[in-house]
Amino acid sequence: MHIVDLIIKKRDGNKLSKEEIYYLIDNYTNGNIKDYQMSALLMSLFYVGMTDEEATNLALAMRDSGDIFDLSSINGIKVDKHSTGGVGDTVTLILGPLLAACGAKVAKMSGRGLGHTGGTIDKLESIPGFRVEVPFTDFLKQVNEIGVSIIGQSGDVAPADKKLYALRDVTGTVDIIPLIASSIMSKKLASGSDAICLDVKVGSGAFMKTVEDATKLAKLMVSIGNLAGKKVTAILTSMEEPLGHYIGNGLEVYEAILALSGKGPKDVLEVTNVISSHLLVDAKLAKDIDEALEMLDEVIKNGKALEKLREMVIAQGGDVSYIDNPEKLFSHKKVLVKALKSGYVEKINASEIGVAASRLGAGREFKEDIIDLKVGLDLHVKIGDKVNKGDTIATLYVTEKGIEEATNLIINNIIIGDKHLTNKLILGIIK
Ligand code: URA
Ligand code: CA
Q: Between 3.40.30.10, 3.90.1700.10, 3.50.50.60, 3.90.1170.30, what CATH number should domain 330-417 receive?
Protein backbone atom coordinates (compact mmCIF):
# COMPACT_ATOMS: atom_id res chain seq x y z
CA MET A 1 0.00 0.00 0.00
CA HIS A 2 1.14 3.55 -0.69
CA ILE A 3 -0.08 6.63 1.08
CA VAL A 4 -0.39 8.73 -2.07
CA ASP A 5 -2.63 6.09 -3.70
CA LEU A 6 -4.92 6.19 -0.66
CA ILE A 7 -5.08 10.00 -0.71
CA ILE A 8 -6.04 9.92 -4.40
CA LYS A 9 -8.54 7.12 -3.82
CA LYS A 10 -10.31 9.14 -1.14
CA ARG A 11 -10.01 12.42 -3.02
CA ASP A 12 -11.84 10.81 -5.94
CA GLY A 13 -14.75 9.82 -3.74
CA ASN A 14 -13.99 6.16 -3.06
CA LYS A 15 -14.37 4.18 0.11
CA LEU A 16 -11.35 3.01 2.11
CA SER A 17 -11.27 -0.57 3.38
CA LYS A 18 -10.61 -1.61 6.96
CA GLU A 19 -7.06 -2.69 6.03
CA GLU A 20 -6.39 0.66 4.35
CA ILE A 21 -7.62 2.60 7.39
CA TYR A 22 -5.49 0.52 9.77
CA TYR A 23 -2.52 1.05 7.44
CA LEU A 24 -3.06 4.83 7.54
CA ILE A 25 -3.43 5.01 11.30
CA ASP A 26 -0.59 2.62 12.16
CA ASN A 27 1.81 4.38 9.84
CA TYR A 28 0.77 7.88 10.86
CA THR A 29 1.24 6.99 14.53
CA ASN A 30 4.74 5.61 13.98
CA GLY A 31 5.80 8.53 11.78
CA ASN A 32 6.05 6.76 8.39
CA ILE A 33 3.22 8.89 7.07
CA LYS A 34 4.01 12.59 7.28
CA ASP A 35 1.81 15.40 8.59
CA TYR A 36 1.55 16.96 5.10
CA GLN A 37 0.23 13.70 3.68
CA MET A 38 -2.26 13.21 6.48
CA SER A 39 -3.34 16.86 6.10
CA ALA A 40 -4.21 16.25 2.44
CA LEU A 41 -6.20 13.18 3.37
CA LEU A 42 -8.06 15.03 6.15
CA MET A 43 -9.08 17.80 3.79
CA SER A 44 -10.38 15.18 1.31
CA LEU A 45 -12.46 13.75 4.14
CA PHE A 46 -14.00 17.18 4.70
CA TYR A 47 -15.19 17.32 1.08
CA VAL A 48 -15.89 13.65 0.34
CA GLY A 49 -17.15 12.48 3.77
CA MET A 50 -16.89 9.01 5.23
CA THR A 51 -19.33 6.11 5.40
CA ASP A 52 -20.42 4.82 8.82
CA GLU A 53 -18.30 1.75 8.19
CA GLU A 54 -15.21 3.86 7.50
CA ALA A 55 -15.82 5.93 10.64
CA THR A 56 -16.21 2.73 12.70
CA ASN A 57 -12.97 1.29 11.31
CA LEU A 58 -11.21 4.57 12.04
CA ALA A 59 -12.45 4.49 15.66
CA LEU A 60 -11.26 0.88 16.03
CA ALA A 61 -7.86 1.60 14.45
CA MET A 62 -7.32 4.57 16.80
CA ARG A 63 -8.53 2.56 19.82
CA ASP A 64 -6.00 -0.16 18.91
CA SER A 65 -3.15 2.35 18.65
CA GLY A 66 -2.73 2.45 22.44
CA ASP A 67 -3.71 0.96 25.79
CA ILE A 68 -7.08 -0.74 26.11
CA PHE A 69 -8.27 -1.07 29.70
CA ASP A 70 -9.42 -4.44 30.92
CA LEU A 71 -12.15 -3.99 33.53
CA SER A 72 -13.20 -7.65 33.51
CA SER A 73 -12.08 -8.15 37.13
CA ILE A 74 -14.82 -5.75 38.25
CA ASN A 75 -18.01 -7.68 39.04
CA GLY A 76 -21.16 -6.41 37.38
CA ILE A 77 -21.91 -4.12 34.48
CA LYS A 78 -19.53 -1.21 34.10
CA VAL A 79 -21.04 2.11 33.06
CA ASP A 80 -19.44 5.24 31.66
CA LYS A 81 -20.54 8.63 30.44
CA HIS A 82 -18.99 11.25 28.26
CA SER A 83 -19.86 14.85 27.59
CA THR A 84 -18.79 16.53 24.38
CA GLY A 85 -17.83 19.55 26.48
CA GLY A 86 -19.81 22.17 28.32
CA VAL A 87 -19.55 25.03 30.78
CA GLY A 88 -20.38 24.45 34.43
CA ASP A 89 -21.06 20.80 33.70
CA THR A 90 -20.60 18.99 36.99
CA VAL A 91 -22.75 15.96 36.04
CA THR A 92 -19.94 13.37 36.30
CA LEU A 93 -19.32 14.26 39.96
CA ILE A 94 -22.99 13.69 40.76
CA LEU A 95 -23.63 10.72 38.53
CA GLY A 96 -20.68 8.61 39.73
CA PRO A 97 -21.79 8.35 43.38
CA LEU A 98 -25.47 8.34 42.40
CA LEU A 99 -25.15 5.32 40.12
CA ALA A 100 -22.87 3.51 42.55
CA ALA A 101 -25.54 3.99 45.25
CA CYS A 102 -27.98 2.25 42.85
CA GLY A 103 -25.64 -0.73 42.40
CA ALA A 104 -23.86 0.18 39.15
CA LYS A 105 -20.08 0.01 38.73
CA VAL A 106 -18.54 3.31 37.72
CA ALA A 107 -14.88 3.02 36.70
CA LYS A 108 -14.35 6.48 35.34
CA MET A 109 -11.34 8.09 33.78
CA SER A 110 -11.72 11.81 33.31
CA GLY A 111 -9.73 14.70 31.96
CA ARG A 112 -8.59 18.17 32.93
CA GLY A 113 -10.07 21.38 31.62
CA LEU A 114 -8.52 23.50 28.93
CA GLY A 115 -9.57 27.02 28.01
CA HIS A 116 -13.16 27.76 28.93
CA THR A 117 -14.27 24.18 29.65
CA GLY A 118 -13.79 22.58 33.04
CA GLY A 119 -12.42 19.12 33.75
CA THR A 120 -13.59 16.67 36.40
CA ILE A 121 -10.04 15.89 37.55
CA ASP A 122 -9.26 19.54 38.33
CA LYS A 123 -12.56 19.81 40.19
CA LEU A 124 -11.76 16.78 42.35
CA GLU A 125 -8.37 18.26 43.25
CA SER A 126 -10.17 21.06 45.09
CA ILE A 127 -10.68 18.46 47.83
CA PRO A 128 -7.27 18.52 49.60
CA GLY A 129 -5.46 15.19 49.47
CA PHE A 130 -7.74 13.65 46.83
CA ARG A 131 -5.62 11.34 44.67
CA VAL A 132 -6.38 11.42 40.96
CA GLU A 133 -3.40 9.25 40.05
CA VAL A 134 -4.05 5.79 41.40
CA PRO A 135 -2.39 2.47 40.44
CA PHE A 136 -4.72 0.60 38.09
CA THR A 137 -5.09 -2.39 40.41
CA ASP A 138 -6.16 -0.08 43.28
CA PHE A 139 -8.65 1.57 40.95
CA LEU A 140 -10.20 -1.81 40.08
CA LYS A 141 -10.28 -2.81 43.76
CA GLN A 142 -12.01 0.41 44.78
CA VAL A 143 -14.70 0.03 42.11
CA ASN A 144 -15.31 -3.56 43.24
CA GLU A 145 -15.56 -2.49 46.87
CA ILE A 146 -17.53 0.75 46.80
CA GLY A 147 -18.82 0.93 43.23
CA VAL A 148 -17.10 4.09 42.07
CA SER A 149 -13.72 5.63 41.40
CA ILE A 150 -12.88 8.66 39.30
CA ILE A 151 -9.25 9.03 38.26
CA GLY A 152 -7.20 10.90 35.67
CA GLN A 153 -6.53 9.38 32.30
CA SER A 154 -3.62 7.01 32.81
CA GLY A 155 -1.46 5.20 30.30
CA ASP A 156 -1.49 5.94 26.63
CA VAL A 157 -5.07 6.00 25.39
CA ALA A 158 -5.55 6.29 21.62
CA PRO A 159 -2.23 8.04 20.83
CA ALA A 160 -3.24 8.07 17.15
CA ASP A 161 -6.18 10.27 18.07
CA LYS A 162 -3.97 12.60 20.09
CA LYS A 163 -1.63 13.09 17.14
CA LEU A 164 -4.42 13.38 14.60
CA TYR A 165 -6.42 15.80 16.74
CA ALA A 166 -3.41 18.11 17.08
CA LEU A 167 -3.07 18.09 13.28
CA ARG A 168 -6.80 18.68 12.72
CA ASP A 169 -6.65 21.62 15.10
CA VAL A 170 -4.17 23.48 12.88
CA THR A 171 -5.46 22.41 9.45
CA GLY A 172 -9.10 23.45 9.66
CA THR A 173 -10.35 19.87 9.88
CA VAL A 174 -11.79 19.63 13.40
CA ASP A 175 -15.46 20.05 12.54
CA ILE A 176 -15.99 16.94 10.43
CA ILE A 177 -18.69 14.82 12.03
CA PRO A 178 -17.28 11.33 11.25
CA LEU A 179 -13.86 12.43 12.54
CA ILE A 180 -15.35 13.81 15.76
CA ALA A 181 -17.38 10.62 16.23
CA SER A 182 -14.42 8.30 15.71
CA SER A 183 -12.17 10.48 17.87
CA ILE A 184 -14.55 10.41 20.84
CA MET A 185 -15.47 6.75 20.41
CA SER A 186 -11.85 5.56 20.06
CA LYS A 187 -11.24 6.79 23.61
CA LYS A 188 -14.55 5.51 25.01
CA LEU A 189 -13.99 2.06 23.50
CA ALA A 190 -10.51 1.93 25.06
CA SER A 191 -11.90 2.69 28.52
CA GLY A 192 -13.46 -0.74 28.80
CA SER A 193 -17.02 -0.10 30.06
CA ASP A 194 -20.04 -2.12 28.90
CA ALA A 195 -22.67 0.62 28.78
CA ILE A 196 -21.89 4.18 27.72
CA CYS A 197 -24.07 7.28 27.75
CA LEU A 198 -22.98 10.21 25.60
CA ASP A 199 -24.12 13.71 26.49
CA VAL A 200 -24.00 15.53 23.17
CA LYS A 201 -24.13 19.25 23.81
CA VAL A 202 -25.97 21.47 21.35
CA GLY A 203 -25.97 25.25 21.05
CA SER A 204 -23.85 28.38 21.24
CA GLY A 205 -21.53 26.96 23.89
CA ALA A 206 -20.98 23.62 22.08
CA PHE A 207 -19.18 22.06 19.13
CA MET A 208 -22.50 21.23 17.48
CA LYS A 209 -24.53 24.37 16.91
CA THR A 210 -27.72 22.72 15.58
CA VAL A 211 -29.90 19.79 16.61
CA GLU A 212 -29.56 18.44 13.09
CA ASP A 213 -25.75 18.18 13.27
CA ALA A 214 -25.84 16.92 16.85
CA THR A 215 -28.28 14.18 15.80
CA LYS A 216 -25.96 13.09 12.99
CA LEU A 217 -23.00 12.96 15.38
CA ALA A 218 -25.00 11.12 18.05
CA LYS A 219 -26.37 8.48 15.63
CA LEU A 220 -22.92 7.80 14.28
CA MET A 221 -21.37 7.43 17.77
CA VAL A 222 -24.16 5.05 18.85
CA SER A 223 -23.65 3.01 15.69
CA ILE A 224 -19.85 2.84 16.20
CA GLY A 225 -20.35 1.74 19.82
CA ASN A 226 -22.89 -0.91 18.88
CA LEU A 227 -20.67 -2.31 16.13
CA ALA A 228 -17.92 -2.60 18.76
CA GLY A 229 -20.24 -4.56 21.06
CA LYS A 230 -21.21 -1.82 23.54
CA LYS A 231 -24.61 -0.56 24.71
CA VAL A 232 -24.65 3.12 23.83
CA THR A 233 -27.25 5.84 24.38
CA ALA A 234 -26.79 9.45 23.33
CA ILE A 235 -28.69 12.32 24.91
CA LEU A 236 -28.81 15.69 23.15
CA THR A 237 -28.75 18.48 25.73
CA SER A 238 -28.78 22.24 25.35
CA MET A 239 -25.61 24.28 25.87
CA GLU A 240 -27.29 27.61 25.12
CA GLU A 241 -26.45 28.53 28.71
CA PRO A 242 -24.12 27.08 31.35
CA LEU A 243 -25.43 24.10 33.31
CA GLY A 244 -26.54 24.86 36.85
CA HIS A 245 -25.48 28.02 38.64
CA TYR A 246 -21.86 27.48 39.63
CA ILE A 247 -18.79 27.53 37.40
CA GLY A 248 -15.35 26.91 38.86
CA ASN A 249 -13.62 23.92 40.37
CA GLY A 250 -14.39 23.93 44.10
CA LEU A 251 -17.70 25.63 43.33
CA GLU A 252 -18.74 22.78 41.04
CA VAL A 253 -17.89 20.21 43.71
CA TYR A 254 -20.09 22.34 45.98
CA GLU A 255 -22.88 22.23 43.37
CA ALA A 256 -22.48 18.44 43.11
CA ILE A 257 -22.79 18.11 46.89
CA LEU A 258 -25.96 20.24 46.79
CA ALA A 259 -27.37 18.01 44.04
CA LEU A 260 -26.53 14.81 45.92
CA SER A 261 -28.29 16.32 48.96
CA GLY A 262 -31.44 16.95 46.91
CA LYS A 263 -30.81 20.71 46.76
CA GLY A 264 -29.23 21.02 43.33
CA PRO A 265 -30.38 23.28 40.50
CA LYS A 266 -33.24 21.87 38.43
CA ASP A 267 -31.36 21.71 35.12
CA VAL A 268 -28.38 19.89 36.63
CA LEU A 269 -30.71 17.34 38.15
CA GLU A 270 -32.63 16.89 34.91
CA VAL A 271 -29.53 16.16 32.81
CA THR A 272 -28.08 13.89 35.52
CA ASN A 273 -31.34 11.95 35.81
CA VAL A 274 -31.78 11.42 32.08
CA ILE A 275 -28.22 10.09 31.67
CA SER A 276 -28.30 8.03 34.87
CA SER A 277 -31.69 6.47 34.18
CA HIS A 278 -30.64 5.27 30.72
CA LEU A 279 -27.45 3.80 32.17
CA LEU A 280 -29.40 1.96 34.89
CA VAL A 281 -31.67 0.45 32.22
CA ASP A 282 -28.75 -0.36 29.88
CA ALA A 283 -26.94 -2.01 32.83
CA LYS A 284 -30.13 -4.03 33.53
CA LEU A 285 -30.37 -2.63 37.06
CA ALA A 286 -33.80 -1.14 36.32
CA LYS A 287 -36.52 -2.59 34.10
CA ASP A 288 -37.53 0.74 32.61
CA ILE A 289 -36.86 4.48 32.84
CA ASP A 290 -39.62 5.07 35.40
CA GLU A 291 -38.21 2.47 37.76
CA ALA A 292 -34.71 3.93 37.26
CA LEU A 293 -35.91 7.45 38.11
CA GLU A 294 -37.51 6.14 41.31
CA MET A 295 -34.26 4.43 42.30
CA LEU A 296 -32.31 7.65 41.71
CA ASP A 297 -34.77 9.71 43.73
CA GLU A 298 -34.66 7.18 46.56
CA VAL A 299 -30.86 7.21 47.01
CA ILE A 300 -30.82 11.00 47.08
CA LYS A 301 -33.62 11.13 49.66
CA ASN A 302 -32.16 8.44 51.94
CA GLY A 303 -28.67 9.98 51.84
CA LYS A 304 -26.97 6.96 50.22
CA ALA A 305 -25.82 8.94 47.17
CA LEU A 306 -24.05 11.58 49.26
CA GLU A 307 -22.59 8.83 51.45
CA LYS A 308 -21.10 7.25 48.28
CA LEU A 309 -19.32 10.50 47.49
CA ARG A 310 -17.90 10.52 51.04
CA GLU A 311 -16.75 6.90 50.61
CA MET A 312 -15.06 7.73 47.31
CA VAL A 313 -13.31 10.79 48.76
CA ILE A 314 -12.08 8.77 51.77
CA ALA A 315 -10.93 5.88 49.56
CA GLN A 316 -8.91 8.28 47.39
CA GLY A 317 -7.29 10.07 50.34
CA GLY A 318 -9.32 13.29 50.25
CA ASP A 319 -10.19 15.41 53.28
CA VAL A 320 -13.83 14.48 53.89
CA SER A 321 -14.40 17.57 56.06
CA TYR A 322 -14.67 19.42 52.72
CA ILE A 323 -17.70 17.30 51.85
CA ASP A 324 -19.26 17.78 55.28
CA ASN A 325 -18.52 21.54 55.31
CA PRO A 326 -18.56 22.30 51.58
CA GLU A 327 -18.27 26.07 52.01
CA LYS A 328 -14.55 25.32 52.60
CA LEU A 329 -14.34 24.56 48.87
CA PHE A 330 -14.40 28.16 47.62
CA SER A 331 -13.12 31.67 48.28
CA HIS A 332 -15.33 33.88 50.40
CA LYS A 333 -14.18 37.12 48.85
CA LYS A 334 -17.18 38.07 46.72
CA VAL A 335 -17.88 40.64 44.03
CA LEU A 336 -21.46 41.21 42.89
CA VAL A 337 -22.31 41.87 39.23
CA LYS A 338 -25.48 43.93 38.70
CA ALA A 339 -27.86 44.18 35.74
CA LEU A 340 -27.51 47.43 33.80
CA LYS A 341 -31.12 47.33 32.59
CA SER A 342 -34.48 45.68 33.18
CA GLY A 343 -36.05 42.97 31.02
CA TYR A 344 -35.86 39.24 30.37
CA VAL A 345 -32.68 37.22 29.98
CA GLU A 346 -32.77 36.38 26.27
CA LYS A 347 -29.40 34.83 25.71
CA ILE A 348 -26.33 33.72 27.65
CA ASN A 349 -23.11 33.06 25.74
CA ALA A 350 -22.03 29.97 27.62
CA SER A 351 -18.47 29.82 26.32
CA GLU A 352 -17.79 33.48 27.21
CA ILE A 353 -19.12 32.91 30.73
CA GLY A 354 -16.65 30.02 30.90
CA VAL A 355 -13.93 32.45 29.82
CA ALA A 356 -14.98 34.81 32.64
CA ALA A 357 -14.44 32.03 35.22
CA SER A 358 -11.15 31.21 33.55
CA ARG A 359 -9.94 34.84 33.81
CA LEU A 360 -10.59 34.76 37.57
CA GLY A 361 -8.11 31.88 37.64
CA ALA A 362 -10.44 28.86 37.36
CA GLY A 363 -9.08 27.76 33.98
CA ARG A 364 -5.88 27.47 32.02
CA GLU A 365 -4.82 29.29 28.93
CA PHE A 366 -1.79 27.02 28.54
CA LYS A 367 -1.46 23.41 29.62
CA GLU A 368 1.12 24.22 32.29
CA ASP A 369 -0.83 27.08 33.94
CA ILE A 370 -1.69 26.55 37.60
CA ILE A 371 -5.35 27.08 38.34
CA ASP A 372 -6.96 28.59 41.39
CA LEU A 373 -9.36 25.91 42.63
CA LYS A 374 -11.31 28.27 44.89
CA VAL A 375 -12.45 30.89 42.39
CA GLY A 376 -15.33 31.03 39.95
CA LEU A 377 -18.81 32.38 39.75
CA ASP A 378 -22.45 31.84 40.58
CA LEU A 379 -24.85 32.84 37.81
CA HIS A 380 -28.09 33.93 39.39
CA VAL A 381 -30.08 34.02 36.17
CA LYS A 382 -31.22 31.61 33.47
CA ILE A 383 -32.73 32.24 30.04
CA GLY A 384 -36.32 33.45 30.52
CA ASP A 385 -35.75 35.04 33.95
CA LYS A 386 -37.03 38.55 34.57
CA VAL A 387 -34.49 41.00 35.97
CA ASN A 388 -34.65 44.57 37.16
CA LYS A 389 -31.89 47.12 36.71
CA GLY A 390 -29.56 46.83 39.70
CA ASP A 391 -30.42 43.17 40.48
CA THR A 392 -27.44 40.93 41.13
CA ILE A 393 -27.02 38.67 38.08
CA ALA A 394 -23.82 36.97 39.21
CA THR A 395 -21.58 36.61 42.23
CA LEU A 396 -17.87 36.29 41.55
CA TYR A 397 -15.81 34.29 44.06
CA VAL A 398 -12.38 35.79 43.66
CA THR A 399 -8.86 36.03 45.01
CA GLU A 400 -7.40 39.02 43.19
CA LYS A 401 -7.05 38.19 39.50
CA GLY A 402 -9.31 39.10 36.57
CA ILE A 403 -12.16 40.78 38.44
CA GLU A 404 -12.75 43.65 36.04
CA GLU A 405 -12.38 41.49 32.96
CA ALA A 406 -14.76 38.83 34.32
CA THR A 407 -17.32 41.47 35.31
CA ASN A 408 -17.30 42.92 31.79
CA LEU A 409 -17.55 39.48 30.18
CA ILE A 410 -20.62 38.72 32.28
CA ILE A 411 -22.32 42.01 31.56
CA ASN A 412 -21.65 41.67 27.82
CA ASN A 413 -22.66 38.03 27.54
CA ILE A 414 -25.89 37.94 29.49
CA ILE A 415 -28.20 39.56 27.00
CA ILE A 416 -31.23 41.28 28.53
CA GLY A 417 -34.11 42.26 26.20
CA ASP A 418 -37.88 42.25 25.96
CA LYS A 419 -38.44 38.75 24.56
CA HIS A 420 -39.58 36.16 27.09
CA LEU A 421 -37.96 32.95 25.82
CA THR A 422 -37.62 29.50 27.36
CA ASN A 423 -34.70 27.15 26.89
CA LYS A 424 -35.53 23.51 26.28
CA LEU A 425 -32.91 21.34 27.95
CA ILE A 426 -33.32 17.79 26.65
CA LEU A 427 -33.37 17.91 22.86
CA GLY A 428 -33.34 14.25 21.91
CA ILE A 429 -32.48 10.68 22.92
CA ILE A 430 -30.81 8.31 20.49
CA LYS A 431 -30.35 4.62 21.16
N1 URA B 1 -13.73 15.88 21.24
C2 URA B 1 -12.91 14.87 20.88
O3 URA B 1 -12.47 14.09 21.70
N4 URA B 1 -12.58 14.75 19.58
C5 URA B 1 -13.05 15.57 18.62
O6 URA B 1 -12.73 15.39 17.47
C7 URA B 1 -13.90 16.63 19.02
C8 URA B 1 -14.22 16.74 20.35
CA1 CA C 1 -22.55 24.24 37.21
A: 3.90.1170.30
